[in-house]
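FAQ

Q: What does a record look like?
A: Structure on top, sequence underneath. For example:
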């Protein structure tokens, strides 16, 4: 190495040292830009990406979640979802994109319910019984409500039906009644999803047709949960004697 080149190298090192930086030859290589996975998602066309994600969700996906996953502003997500929903309706597709229970999900269109029902059931009877539907209605409009009050409103013992609703995830325990210690029940998020509702405020106005809770008399029998065999049947209530 000549004296001139050695002096030049020393000058460069002195310059970096004076600036508080390390020798550039010892600095590691730095990657530029976001990680490959993130940049790939952000560069995807938004509407097809939304369709792909919504095809695999198990429950309605919120706009916040979709915005985070697809790395887009929520406003862009919201606009694209509504555009897709309107497009499916205009094209008369057999499915629709609906906002339900705080999120978005694909559903088969009501007009084709008979075809879907025939495929899903295929001779099986998987519907809720009339007794279960009536019991679910009482819980929905009177929640939180104890099992004994539901039985009093319907005039029959609802233990078996309530267990069926619990097993299907349509109702859940929601605390206890202060006066009696009875277990209280309320509808679930899954109930809203299955009913196609965004909230309980969208329930039809049927409450005026039900008796007031204060008018329902009878002692609670909810101190200990019932574990009888669930036959999903109603039994007439009997006065305590």
């Amino acid at each position: 190495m000549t004296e001139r080149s050695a002096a030049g190298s020393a000058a460069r090192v002195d310059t970096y040292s004076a600036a508080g930086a390390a020798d550039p030859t010892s600095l590691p290589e730095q990657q530029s830009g976001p990680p490959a996975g993130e940049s790939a998602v952000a560069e995807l066309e938004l509407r097809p990406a939304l369709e792909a994600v919504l095809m695999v969700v198990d429950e309605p996906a919120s706009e916040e979640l979709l915005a985070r996953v697809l790395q887009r502003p929520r406003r862009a997500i919201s606009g694209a979802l509504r555009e897709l929903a309107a497009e499916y309706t205009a094209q008369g597709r057999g499915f629709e994109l609906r906002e339900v229970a705080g999120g978005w999900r694909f559903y088969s269109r009501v007009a084709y319910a008979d075809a879907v029902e025939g495929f899903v059931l295929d001779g099986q009877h998987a519907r809720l019984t009339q007794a279960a539907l009536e019991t679910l209605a009482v819980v929905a409009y009177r929640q939180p409500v104890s099992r004994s009050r539901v039985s009093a409103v319907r005039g029959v013992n609802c233990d078996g039906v309530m267990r069926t609703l619990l097993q299907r995830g349509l109702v859940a325990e929601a605390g206890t009644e202060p006066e009696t210690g009875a277990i209280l029940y309320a509808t679930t998020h899954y109930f809203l999803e299955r009913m196609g509702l965004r909230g309980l405020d969208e329930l039809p106005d049927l409450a005026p047709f039900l008796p007031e809770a204060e008018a329902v008399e009878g002692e609670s029998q909810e101190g200990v949960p019932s574990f009888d065999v669930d036959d999903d049947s109603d039994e007439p209530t009997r006065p305590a004697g």
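Q: Is there anything notable about this one?
A: The first helix runs from residue 3 to 18.
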